[in-house]
Amino acid sequence: MMPGQIAKKLAARLPAGGFLRHAFAISSGVAFGQAISVLASPIISRIYSPGVFGTVAALSSWAAIGGVIASGRFEMAIPIARDDEEGVSLTALTLVCATLFSILVALLLWVLPQDVLAKVGFSEDIWDLRWLIPVLVIASTFQTAISQYGTYRRAYGALATAQAVQASASSGIKIGVGLVTPSVGGLVAGELARRVLGLGTVVRKSGLRLHDLLRQCTMGRLKATAYTHHRYPAFVLPSSVLNAISMQAPVVLLASHFSTVESGLYTLGLAAVQVPLLLIETGVNNAFISRIREYERAGRLAEVITKMVQALAVIGAPWFAICAVWGPELMAFVFGSQWRDSGTYLALLTPWLFVGFVFSACGMVLWARNRQGADFGWQVLFVSSRLGALEVGSRTGSAVAAVGAYAAVCFVTLTGYNAWLLRLLRVPMAGSLFYALRELAGHCILGFVTRFVLLQVGVASPLVGVIVTCVLVGAAALLRLRIHGAFGGI
Can you list the alpha helix ranges (DSSP code H) found in 290-432? Predict the structure, then answer.
């Protein structure tokens, strides 16, 4: 039985038409993919060195920034299209923009000299591999556009199958190529597989036909669609570019100021804390954005956001607390001793990433309300403060100090942004932001106290400490879930 069929059967057991059913249908596909990726990660991390990881991470970071620009952010409007024709026209416009931009990037990287690119943080280690950047850009943008159209058509089973296919192929390629030659090529090939394979299933199940796409690719139709949705490149794009720069800056600057080894350590630490909960975040985000207008019409938006935030906080706090308490030991045990230092980065990043996980879907309301320019000032603050923190931290000569300063600034500014957003949406702070922070603080205190007690009684084994902490924190989380009655009504 395919993952999409399994997802449909399990989702059918949830309340019909409910938010949780849609979220589960999407996240179940990510679950299959992430389960494969999680199982393969300890093998991959023992095959490839941190330096190789860092090189690919730097390439991917530049591609991530380029991918935001390439789409013009038109793909953000696809899930909330008014009808099928508008959904197809937006998809076609996104694909055309991505193709033209990728060609332009390829030409620029071919003609610009290395010293010019070095001034913006282009590392010497990726100079000979720069041709891969436009390839990654077009692949990721096509994946996003087609997946967004699948979300609009609610082809959740197809999205689930695609996720499983992509993860399986990606992990298999990375391991297979790495056993022969553990070089950059194996990781890049795996990343391309993760972006493009399985999309045919989404295309078929969502009813997206090549004929319909080509029909929308005339100059007149493209102009009309771009004009109708001009707020996305005008307002969402600048904010998104700034956000992409601030998110990818650590990888780029660590590679430029220190080495690709530090970039690799940071990248795996970041992935280790995010991946286990990514399936939940992806499902919730996609399901929420596709039903924002429905909740607003029903007058339930504040209620749904409050319950969603509480559910995500209770689910996420235990994991983030364990990462904060046992980061280095966890990384060394799971991925190998060469990755122990990445656990330090993991621990530093957890407060910021927790806030991002819990409130990731909330900002989508601004897009649905066509208020894409409302948070531009925040994005300017984000990128300027984060780049400043990285630069100041880097001057100490310590990569850990640079990441620590970056993580602290990210946590403070993102918490402030979410407080502003919740007030704008008239969501009670006590039941949302303060609730989430209390959950994280409570689990972290429990974790650090457990670690201290274990050390005092002479338990020196990190593995035993991690297991005991997981049991205690997990028991506390289950108690909280039971108290809240599984968050019915969302």
Answer: 292-298, 301-335, 340-359, 364-368, 376-394, 399-424
